[in-house]
């Protein structure tokens, strides 16, 4: 867990191939105005490995307990990819701890159909077979837009090379079991949906579906691919800061 700044709390939730390090640029940009909390999910970064798969409900419960223990409720939740799916479940199950949602390059979950679920469930076997470094070398280019900056591409690969099998296996199973589509209309907090225009992992169409299904949600398409927060950090952070300011104004009124 990384904590910086002061102000209304913001919890950053990373993707399945990331960690809190994926949010270096956002921590720096948001901390002047917000209390920024960037978690390492169980089995990622500095967090202990889970003893068994947690399920999406388990991750949501952990987030709720974490925010309460840190006296950080209600918090803005900013989730990228898998982190956005966790954030969605928190908003559905524990709305009292959520001030607003930012769902970036995210999805309803991989359980929307059996093929996507099967693909997700197969990934830990590949990770176990080839190792984290080779897994990252193979998969990280798909997170980036064509012609992405080489330093950004290397950073994305390096972060993914730090994933560990227990954490990844639990995360993949939570995605495979989840389809939030039928419940999205129940979300009642201000929501911003962001997506990279070249996202080939979850895609612009899925982002549009999220935005259309969540009452009052707004969609912004950004330069970059699935890792838009790392490829276009200034634009991403500016969109988030503007949205959080609006959400805080609503709370204040």
What does this structure look like?
- The chain has one domain: Alpha/Beta hydrolase fold, catalytic domain (Rossmann fold), CATH 3.40.50.
- Helix 4 (114-130) packs across helix 5 and helix 5 packs antiparallel against helix 6 (150-160).
- The protein has ten helices and seven strands.
- It has a seven-stranded mixed sheet, with helices on both faces.
- 46% of the residues lie in helices and 15% in strands.
- The radius of gyration is 16 Å and the shape is globular.
- By secondary structure, it is α/β, with parallel strands linked by helices.
Using the coordinates shown, work out and report the CATH topology: Rossmann fold
- Counted beta strands: 7
- Mind summarizing the main beta sheet? 7 strands, mixed
Provide the structure class.
Answer: alpha/beta
What is the spatial order of strands in the main beta sheet? 1-3-2-4-5-6-7
Shape: globular
User: Average pLDDT, to the nearest integer?
Assistant: 97
- Low-pLDDT segments, ≥5 res: none
Number of helices: 10
CATH class: Alpha Beta
The helix content, as a percent range, equals 40-55%
> Which range does the strand content fall in?
15-25%
- The CATH homologous superfamily is termed Alpha/Beta hydrolase fold, catalytic domain
* Rg result: 16 Å
Q: Report how far the terminal alpha carbons are from each other.
A: 31 Å
């Amino acid at each position: 867990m990384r904590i910086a700044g002061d102000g209304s709390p913001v919890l950053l939730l990373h993707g399945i191939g990331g960690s809190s390090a994926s949010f270096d640029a956002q921590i720096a940009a948001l901390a002047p105005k917000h209390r920024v909390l960037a978690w390492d999910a169980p089995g990622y970064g500095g967090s202990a490995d889970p003893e068994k798969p947690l399920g999406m409900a388990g991750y949501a419960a952990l987030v709720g307990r974490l925010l309460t223990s840190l006296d950080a409720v209600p918090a803005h939740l900013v989730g990228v990819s898998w982190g956005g799916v966790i954030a969605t479940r928190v908003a559905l199950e524990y709305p009292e701890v959520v001030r607003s949602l930012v769902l970036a390059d995210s999805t309803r979950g991989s359980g929307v159909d059996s093929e996507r679920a099967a693909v997700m469930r197969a990934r830990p076997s590949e990770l176990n077979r080839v190792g984290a470094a080779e897994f990252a070398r193979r998969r990280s280019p798909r997170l980036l837009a064509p012609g992405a900056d080489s330093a950004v591409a290397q950073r994305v690969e390096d972060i993914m090379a730090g994933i560990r099998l227990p954490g990844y296996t639990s995360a993949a199973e939570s995605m495979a079991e989840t389809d939030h589509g039928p419940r999205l209309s129940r979300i009642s907090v201000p929501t911003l949906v962001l997506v990279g225009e070249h996202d080939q992992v979850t895609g612009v169409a899925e982002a549009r579906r999220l935005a259309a299904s969540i009452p009052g949600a707004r969609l912004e398409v950004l330069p970059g691919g699935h890792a838009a927060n790392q490829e276009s950090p200034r634009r991403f952070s500016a969109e988030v800061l503007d949205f959080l300011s609006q959400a805080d104004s609503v709370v204040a009124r």
